[in-house]
Write a structure and sequence with these properties.
By secondary structure, the protein is of the alpha/beta class. It contains 14 helices and 13 strands. The chain starts with a helix and ends with a helix. Bound molecules: D-xylonic acid. The site of D-xylonic acid has 11 residues, from loops.
Length: 357
């Protein structure tokens, strides 16, 4: 295992103590694939800076480090990558703007933060569209999805590859949630739920009777800590690695949306690179994205179980309870399917169906 991995895993392998109980900080994770391929000739040097939203223990950070390892090894150090985690350099929307102005080379937003540039990506925000990780990966690897990455051309953003943010789960600090009525509150007020700054997510939580509040990811922990919002929704691994369980008592396994990440490079940086480097960057992005999906899968259920071990009360929905959530969000399709495109949605649904055959 390379030095950087020993250091990274040693760092995240450190246990955390909760009331004296030691908890592992990460599951047994697969090593990254061995870096193979020819050394790319000398076409100058690039010191790349990348900002991400998640923590150093997240699949997003670990796979970004692997991406940097590939570039460094395959160019004998002529291309290096420095990854800044924890929304240090800004949130998804701000960092995308920094790529457009050239003040930052790379970032790794949720697709939901990019629908202002490529509206078709809103298809991924439709609730309960992707029934399994296999189906989601088939969609992300399809020509339809590649067309969405290509559609960023001219925005100042070079979209390199899709990977997995994952299935979103509800957490909150007010009460256990088993039904949409628990979200809306019958004799109590509806939950105030932070959403990404994305109109489809806003519509989902309005349909469920919540009071949705769009907010940057970097502001979320303190907003929950101060009671500005009751809850939020993110994959279990994000809830764990961002320590949301410290301010959230209840979780509900809704799996209401599967969100991709998109690895992004500034077009200004891309245009300064020789074609040989561009080819390597694309290849390395795809390799690290595949590894990120593997890590995310290894983190998913393990994170949920860790959250329970650390005191979060997690509700698993039975088929009937899940059906109630799916029924409650149908108005989102009525409103958004025509705006996103019925044909695109049926193309995606066909890929989903083919992936299960
Ligand atoms: C991290 C975000 C985050 C997303 C959100 O940069 O904002 O809730 O799910 O993972 O992209």
């Amino acid at each position: 295992m390379t030095t950087i991995w020993r250091n990274a895993l040693t760092l995240i392998g450190a246990t955390t103590l909760t009331f004296g109980v030691a908890h592992a900080q990460s599951p047994e994770l697969s090593d990254p694939p061995v870096i193979e391929g020819e050394t790319v000739g000398d076409h100058g040097s690039h010191r790349l800076r990348m900002g991400i939203g998640l923590a150093k223990s997240s699949p997003q950070y670990l796979s970004s480090q692997y991406f940097g390892e590939i570039l460094e090894q395959r160019t004998e150090g002529r291309i290096t990558l420095n990854v800044f985690p924890n929304s240090q350099l800004g949130d998804d929307v701000q960092m995308l703007e920094m790529l457009q102005t050239g003040t930052l080379d790379m970032t790794y937003p949720s697709s939901s933060a990019t629908t202002g540039y490529v509206q078709a990506l809103a298809v991924f925000d439709l609730p309960f569209l992707l029934p399994s990780r296999e189906a989601a990966v088939a969609v992300m690897q399809s020509d339809v999805a590649q067309g969405m990455l290509d559609a960023f051309e001219g925005t100042g953003l070079k979209a390199l590859a899709f990977s997995e943010n994952g299935y979103r789960q509800l957490s909150n600090s007010a009460r256990p949630v088993e039904t949409p009525e628990d979200v809306a509150g019958l004799d109590v007020r509806g939950l105030s739920v932070r959403t990404m700054e994305n109109p489809v997510h806003l519509a989902i939580w309005q349909a469920l009777g919540a009071n949705p509040t769009p907010m940057a990811f970097g502001e979320l922990f303190s907003a929950m800590e101060q009671g500005v919002v009751d809850g939020q929704e993110n994959p279990w691994s994000t809830i764990l690695t961002s320590n949301f369980h410290e301010v959230q008592d209840y979780g509900t396994e809704t799996r209401h949306v599967y969100t991709p990440f998109i690895m992004m490079l500034s077009e200004r940086t891309w245009d300064r690179m020789a074609p040989e480097y561009q080819e390597l960057v694309l290849e390395a992005a795809r390799q690290s994205a595949a590894y990120e999906i593997q890590l995310s899968a290894e983190y998913d259920d393990w994170s949920r179980d860790q959250l329970e071990e650390r005191g979060m009360q997690i509700t698993r929905l039975d088929d009937e309870q899940l059906a109630a959530f799916q029924e409650a969000v149908q108005p989102v399709y009525t409103e958004w399917a025509p705006r996103i495109g019925e044909e695109l949605i049926s193309d995606i649904q066909q890929i989903v169906e083919d992936s299960s055959n």
